[in-house]
């Protein structure tokens, strides 16, 4: 990746929203690779942004709030981002992360529990702030329903997150892309053209390998590890 005059631009910091992403995707982000966002995804992002602002405004009115859009930064790890909100809960700070999903994904989450990507982002906030607990709020863009999940600090998850961030940092510093982590996520990835020659190749690879097997493996080997974080549904 070269800037004006042929100089390589410094990699971006690691965004917490990439905590549960494919390592190759996260590294592309740090190296400023473009994204191909289709119209439907762009509309969903705009709608998500609108709901996000409404949610934060409701929190502000509700009281017990410490901050919205709280900056979080770790220079040693090269991580920077903003937490949606932090509030007082039972005398302690609690991080709140808000996500919107389409109706189909919402039904899946209701049945199976939160997405690894969402939990990983919140778990990273807990690791960096040392707050003990966070709440993940997932809202359906189709029905306005929402689900809430409590996420507690968990050492194995923190080790996993830090290992992934370091691998991504190393790859970005060397300006190389890690190996693909083929999974169903590839079907909705907006940088998939960097991984497959065409749609057919992408679909064939995903059909052969639909499950995500990150390196190092998720704690406990699967999304079941989320249970081990003390996660529980509160509504
Ligand atoms: S297409 Fe798949 S392997 Fe490639 S960056 Fe996206 S999620 Fe990762």
Characterise this structure.
By secondary structure, this protein is α+β, with helices and mostly antiparallel strands. The protein has a single domain (8-178, 218-233), classed as Lambda Exonuclease, Chain A. Helix content is 38%, strand content 20%. The chain is built from 7 helices and 6 strands, in the order ααβββααββαααβ. The protein has a 6-stranded mixed sheet, sandwiched between helices. A hairpin with a 2-residue loop joins strand 2 (79-89) and strand 3 (92-101). The protein is globular and about 50 Å long. The model is unreliable at 221-225 and 230-235 (pLDDT under 50). The site of iron/sulfur cluster (SF4) has 12 residues, from helix 1.
Succession of helices and strands = HHEEEHHEEHHHE
Given as residue ranges, the uncertain stretches (5+ residues, pLDDT < 50) are 221-225, 230-235
Q: What small molecules does the structure contain?
A: iron/sulfur cluster
How would you sum up the major sheet?
A: 6 strands, mixed
Beta-strand level of the residues, as a percent range? Answer: 15-25%
**How are the strands of the largest sheet arranged?**
1-2-3-4-5-6
Q: Structural class of the helices, strands and pairings?
A: alpha+beta
* Percent helix range: 25-40%
The total beta strand count reads: 6
**CATH architecture descriptor name:** Alpha-Beta Complex
Using the coordinates shown, work out and report the CATH topology. Lambda Exonuclease, Chain A
- Total count of helical runs of at least 4 residues: 7
Count of distinct structural domains: 1
Instruction: Give the integer mean of the pLDDT values.
Output: 89
What would CATH call the class?
Alpha Beta
